[in-house]
Amino acid sequence: MIRQQAGTILALLLLSACAPLPFSNSPPPAKTESCGDVVEYHTLASRLSANDGWELRQALQPTGGVDDACNRLRLALLLCKPDTPFRDDAEAARLLTGFLADPATAQHPQRGLAQQLADSLADRQRLLTDSLAERQRLLAKQMLLEESLAQEKTRTQVLTKELQQIQTTATSLKKQVQAQQSQLDQLKSIEQDINAKERAVENPASDRKGAKAHEQK
């Protein structure tokens, strides 16, 4: 079916290229050729497979003939069709630029269509450029955020490690304080015993009286 459509398009192209030959030797009057039903052509071309589209693309390449203007327009229509395997916006834009810049197409019936296609491709390219720029901006912002997050994560890890060291030091100091308090309590107890013994040595009579009175009771 696709091959049949491709053959139909090629046949239409050949028929549209035919024009009656003049019977006199005088040059024919200036005439602007119509490219036929380009809308129907555009619809049929969009249904072609990749291989058929490539074959049609080769068949439409300008050769310097009288039908070059229409072939440029048809090829541009083929290449700017979205969602096709043979889409080529850059080449389509180049063909349309050549079509519009050609003095021979200044009064061409499809010049308005060519201008609309060129404007549409320019808008599409501008949107694509803006989209890519926005994507790059978002990617750059994402990279900055990821870098900032990584730095914050590293900082958090450092602070966590420092906190753990502080907690370890605090635990060690607490144990040291407890040990010193225990030693201090022991020293106080020893000091009390020493003081008691010193008093007993200094006042033995008092101590004996106290002991005797305690026995009488």
From TrEMBL:
Residues 195-217 are annotated as: Disordered. PROSITE patterns: PROKAR_LIPOPROTEIN. Residues 163-190 form a coiled coil. The keyword Coiled coil applies. Keywords: Coiled coil. This is Lipoprotein. The lineage of its organism: unclassified sequences, metagenomes, ecological metagenomes.
